[in-house]
Amino acid sequence: MRDLYDGMVKPIAEFRKIPCPGQKDSLWEYEGALASTPLWPPTYFRKFSIKEIVEHPRMRNWKCTVPPNSCYACKIHLEGCHIPELLTKARNYWEGLCLDCMNITRRDVDKDYWKHTYKSNDWSRKCRKFHGRNTWYFSFMGRPEIMKKYQLEKANRKKANGYGHWFASDDSY
User: Which of 2, 52, 74, 167 qualifies as a FRET site for 149, CA 20 to 30 Å off?
Assistant: First the structure.
């Protein structure tokens, strides 16, 4: 979801770099079109599922007025040439929760759930379908203290392995 949002907002910064007589008009039109999608304002898009955003008529049928004084670079953004790729990437990013990943429990539900993620990031090791990533990351619905403990342990492992301190926050889940 974040990649889709970032990809749609990125042209705003690019418009500001384009030395074009229609720069301001193009930026205004792009922001207007973006405001008609579920991605704007930024706090608003979290109310929608990826499916709702990707299938939203304003995302599928991007409409943006191209000012007559716009240069070629502005026109490309205004015409939404970047949008189909972003939508495809968002559609394919999560194929849903993997039932095999969710059904790894043998004895202790919590221990088995977390043990699965410690196996060198081989997320689909015993799954029928290769998905190559943890499909449950944003769907964790367990106790917050377990998630916090897990994240703290992960941050400590990264520090011990020399990966830095970028994940040291213990209150983000």
Answer: 2
150 or 20, greater pLDDT: 20
Which of 93, 117, 149 is the last residue in one of the domains? Answer: 93
Mean pLDDT of the chain: 76
DSSP-H helix ranges across 18-71:
23-35, 50-54, 57-60
* Domain of 133, in residue numbers: 99-160
Beta-carbon contacts of 1 under 8 Å, excluding residues fewer than 6 positions away, are 45, 50, 53, 90
In a domain, 171, yes or no: no
Residues 154 and 103 in one domain: yes
Cα–Cα distance, 35 to 29 (Å, whole number): 10
Among 4, 93, 96, residue whose Cα is nearest residue 56: 4
Residue range 40-59: mean pLDDT, rounded: 81
CB 123 within 8 A of CB 135: yes
Q: For residue 27, is pLDDT > 80?
A: yes
Higher pLDDT, 3 or 72: 72
